[in-house]
Design goal:
The chain is 31% helix and 24% strand. It is an alpha/beta fold. Strand 2 (21-26) and strand 3 form a beta hairpin. The structure holds zinc ion (ZN) (2 copies). One zinc ion binds at residues 71, 73, 139, 161, 365. One zinc ion binds next to loops.
Length: 552
Amino acid sequence: MTKLRLKLIPLGGLGEIGKNMMVMEYEDDIIIIDAGLMFPEEEMLGIDLVIPDINYLLEKREKIRGIIITHGHEDHVGALPYLLPQLDVPVYSTKLTQGLISVKLKERKALSEAKLMVIPPGGQFTLGKFRVEFFPVCHSIPDAVGLIIYTPIGIIVHSGDFKLDYTPVSGKPTDLSRLAQLGAQGVLLLLSDSTYAELLGYTPSERVVGETLDHIMADAPGRVIVTTFSSLVSRIQQVIDSAAKHQRRVFIVGRSMSDTARMALELGYLNDPDGVLARLDELKGMPRNKVVFITTGSQGEPTSALVRMANRDHRQVHILRGDTIVISATPIPGNEGLINRTVDNLFKQGAQVLYGKVAPVHVHGHGSQEELKLLLNLVKPKFFVPIHGEYRHLSLHAKLAQSVGIPEDNTFILEDGDILEISPQWGKITGKVTSGNVYVDGLSVGDIGSVVLRNRRMLSRDGIVVVIIAVNKQTGKLVGRPDIVSRGFVDTRESRDMLDESRDLVARILDHSGDRPAEWSFVNTKVRDTLNKFYYEQTKRRPMILPFMVTV
Ligand SMILES: [Zn+2]
Ligand SMILES: [Zn+2]
């Protein structure tokens, strides 16, 4: 009986928002749930995105039976283009999710080797000793599912991202009756979404946004520009429906939005019954109050269409006085500054801007406290692990579980890398595996380490000083005074005396050690140490110091 043990190992998404990845291991079988990315925080300079460290999985590659994706959001699929080529295992998802994954894989030319399996909501499939069933959940993207996982030690329910909207725009409401059935049967472990565990009450229905959009389309004196996530297919649908009611045509601007919309139309997740979608070349001559644009840029992403419009840098669309701009998205933490600057720029150009703080133009896709409690009550699990959230979200969710009667000892707050072992009778955190962030910077994956980030931080804060030292080729002796060039360190005019003094200082220390041809590494260190100390005394700053030797 001692063999009846299952390991649960989160490699991302626990203790943070984003890069969700959960590993389940039973004897010789491993399944992976989700493979997401995280957008960088402000101090991760120049990093485009962050994905989970999968060293643990690479060591056990032959045991991995597949990756199961709950839905098509970036924090659940975004790492696939980088990780799939390394793991080379089949990926299981619903149809729309597969469509979104294909768009992503194609962008990185990783589509042709991928084995993508489509399973409908309600469908089942077997991976080693795990049998997995998809159940529909309502979320801010159609075709989202939670997982019922039948394992040799009992039933595990994984909620995916969910809320309990009974009148969703597209897709099905969360299948509560199936969950209640399972609850009656007996569920060993529930893993449930904690993203909005801080919020009291219920999350409002998507319908609220539809009503707001109707008012906007009716009243806006000029063009309406709606920006949202390209994956928020149901929001795009709401814009199309509302535009149709008010005899407006809809133009999709930007590549990622167009790609997603085309795919969703082909697969039938997006419908345009009145033919309001139009091509940009049809725009000419159309009255402004008959025009709607949909575009990306809700996060203030510098290369997005909206930000380029806000900065008068978009080829096709310029902001006009009288435009109404609707930002239909929640700011991802860390992006607030970028978004606020974009909103300011839009106002400056005479546009009206509507965003979450001033109008109900967005509802988020995660359950609030009462919904989380309802799920716990229906599923009635023996053990509970809150997932998807920062530590405070997980803690609050654990408290909610206790409030509905799950013993504290049966509730486990895990962080990335923790190993939770569970048997039918007990659960215990038994160790830790390697986990963490892998940084993706442009085209390179993983070779940006913390040293590079530290350097970038140093450069951004204290600037750089380049010291050019000319040395005689034969004698190795210093020729003239060293040159010093600085950027972002001090005002070079105001601090000319201080910089001059530092040139003398370098000359002096090099003369000292200069009766033999100097070893470069020695000179390098000596110059750096001396200037570090001197500049810090003078300015309390630590610029990056780069000595260069030229032989003449
Ligand atoms: Zn999601
Ligand atoms: Zn998520």
